[in-house]
Amino acid sequence: MSAVFNKIKTNRFFGLGLLLLMAAGFWFLFKLLAPTNFGSRSQMIGYLQTSIQYAVGGCGLYFIVIMGLFDFSVGANIVLSSLVGVLLSRFFGYWGLILGCLFCGALIGIFNGFLYSKLRIPSMIVTVGLMLVLESIASYAIAIDPSVNPGKLTNDLLAFNHAPWNYIVAFAAFLLMSFLLNYTRIGTYCNAIGSNEYVAKNMGINVERYKFIGFVLLHLFVGIMALLTVSYGKGILAVTGMASMERNFKPLMGTFFGVAFKKYGCPVPAIVIGEFIIVLIFNGLVAMNIPTTINDFVTGAVLLTIVTLTNRAAKGVVVK
Predict the structure, then answer these.
(1) pLDDT tens-place string over residues 98-121
(2) Do residues 66 and 208 touch, judged by C-beta distance below 8 A?
(3) CA separation for the pair 161, 229 (Å, rounded)
(4) Which has more confidence, 34 or 300?
(5) What is the CATH number of domain 11-147+156-310?
(6) Quick check: 65 and 293 in contact, CB under 8 A?
(7) Where in the chain are the domains?
(8) Is 47 within 8 Å of 283 (Cβ atoms)?
(9) Spatial CA neighbour of 66 closest among 172, 175, 196
């Protein structure tokens, strides 16, 4: 009987059911505590539209986090890619907006991966430096915007601001992520490197190459996230002094869900539903008029609790 139960516990549908149960539980809890300010139909649509933006970025972060790397320049890339997309949209319309966001994101990923591979220093150090550089470039990009409202999208370029196009773009990104993880060497080798880099290298896997690819894929997805973010907000402003770092952590929270639920074989749905749970918690606490500092504390504590309970390592296993 215990063997059957253990088999069920590792089933994909068990993992998905657990995620959906958590989402429903948090919705019911905050609906009970703040019935007039939380969980209406229009609010739930807003929560979903916000969460899919973070989920796209979380999918990108998964490629490097699973290999034990991290990138502090994600937020700065979101800002810069958004501003480049807005700037090019002044001249080329939707093509400028879409290609500006995606190509800028991917180019930053190439540059980031190249620096990490060649400098051979920890990824956090490389990406902190790159974050400062990208913030400076973003300030220049908004300064050369010829519009009277620099950084703002015009009303005729807001198709990705609402359904159905924002959902179509996000769903396409999730399908791409699933394909790369399940049907290409990239997903297999990234998981192998994350499990044991030394063994993966001895098996003939070019570790540095796939870390480089991981950074490129991360920032390609960040470019897609930038497209959704700037469209949803109808624009974006440049920031300096590491202020863009704040944008790193919401996507990362979804990535934690993906890593924790990888054992169930559903990292992509876990990232998507996990981001929705995080947005539910954040907005539920706002609906209860909880101060921002306590809101962040509670959100982080709940996330750590969920990941700890769902990803406890067996006794004697080395935790990376």
Answers:
(1) 999 999 999 999 999 999 988 888
(2) no
(3) 8
(4) 34
(5) 1.10.3470
(6) no
(7) 11-147+156-310
(8) yes
(9) 196
